[in-house]
Amino acid sequence: MFLVALVLICVLWEGYKWFGTAVDGKVFGWKLPARTNDSAMPHVWDVLSRFGDPERRGSDTPIWFVVLEGAWFTFRVAMVGMIVGVAVGLGLAIVMQRFVTAERGFLPFVIVSQTVPLVALAPLVVGWGGRLSLFGVDWRPWMSVSLIASYLAFFPVAVGGLRGLNSPEPASVELMDSYAAGWWTTLVKLRLPSAVPYLVPALKLAAAASIVGTVVAEISTGTKGGIGRLIIEYSWDATSDPGKVWTAMLGAAALGLAVAGLVSLIDLAFMRNRPQEESLA
Q1: Nearest of 263, 243, 207 to residue 67 by alpha carbon
Q2: What phi and psi, each to the nearest 5 degrees, are found at residue 137?
Q3: Every domain of the chain and the residues it spans
Q4: Residues 81-114: pLDDT tens digits?
Q5: Which ranges in the chain belong to alpha helices (H)?
Q6: 3-class state of residue 26 by DSSP
Q7: CB 47 within 8 A of CB 247
Q8: pTM above 0.85, yes or no
Q9: Closest listed residue to residue 266, CA positions, set 82, 8, 59
Q10: Could you give the CA distance from residue 214 to residue 16 in angstroms, rounded to a whole number?
Q11: What is the spatial distance between Cα 272 and Cα 65, in angstroms, rounded to a whole number?
Q12: Best CATH choice for the domain 54-272 from the list 3.40.50.1860, 1.10.3720.10, 3.20.20.70, 1.20.120.450
């Protein structure tokens, strides 16, 4: 189905390019939202063929290799941010589940935190990070990018984890109480396993959010080495080489899909040890 959806997107792209106009105008009384000339919307095959061409004149390095290097750098930075975000989000979910007052106090701020514009937050984090030194290690620019990625990643884990930890049936919780199980035993043996169906979608959202946060932070801060920096550099050639711009964008999209697929593999590992539900006859 993914391949079918991918082909459908390409067909829609080419169909819009064929049906639309090269300049802003109207078709059957409808105003088109985008131009369809080659500078704004290059053909799909032109973008794909650009991956095999050298990045710039006089260079032997193909553009696919440069995009792959940038995606690898962004992936590592995003994974650091995702790990921090998942740890913070899951920790908040456990605290909010344990204490009702903590849920009432923290949950509104968790929701409000996602209303802060990331573009405005990124320069502040970079400015603060430039003055920090942790355990004798100077703060690096990529650490600011990872921190911004974790800022987006913790939210779905906190909300999904809280819902998952509260998902066990009251009868199951009462059974654990009848065995004189403590809070920690109930958390490990009952609540966390019950939260897996809620945590896996939250982890997928956190993975995608960490990639988005990393790319946006790289663009906002100008951090070199990542796919966000390539988007900035390639956008300078948007008029003369529009296909080059789309290679970096497709690289970022492929990176997000790869990270979501990685989370799906983790879900399969959990599913392998999960008991199968028996259907009633």
Answers
A1: 243
A2: -105, 125
A3: 1-41, 54-272
A4: 999 999 999 999 999 999 989 889 888 888 888 8
A5: 2-19, 44-50, 63-98, 100-113, 118-129, 141-165, 170-178, 183-186, 192-221, 227-235, 242-272
A6: strand
A7: yes
A8: no
A9: 82
A10: 31
A11: 36
A12: 1.10.3720.10
Strand partners, 134: 137
277 contacts: CB under 8 Å, gap ≥ 6: none
CA–CA separation, 241 and 71 (whole Å):
21
Each residue's pLDDT tens digit, 195-226 = 888 888 898 889 888 888 888 888 877 778 88
DSSP state of 140: P
- 17 within 8 A of 44, measured Cβ to Cβ: no
Q: How far apart are CA 163 and CA 11, in angstroms?
A: 40
Q: Which residues contact 234 (CB under 8 A, 6 or more apart)?
A: 241, 244, 245, 247, 248
Helix (H, G, I), strand (E, B) or coil at 22: coil
Residue showing tokens 């801060």: 221
Under DSSP, the state recorded for 24 is S
Question: 239-250 pLDDT, tens per residue?
Answer: 777 788 888 888
Instruction: Check residue 278 and give its pLDDT.
Output: 40
- Token code pair at residue 251: 């690289």
State how far the alpha carbon of 225 is from the alpha carbons of 15, 139, 252, in Å. Answer: 35, 17, 13
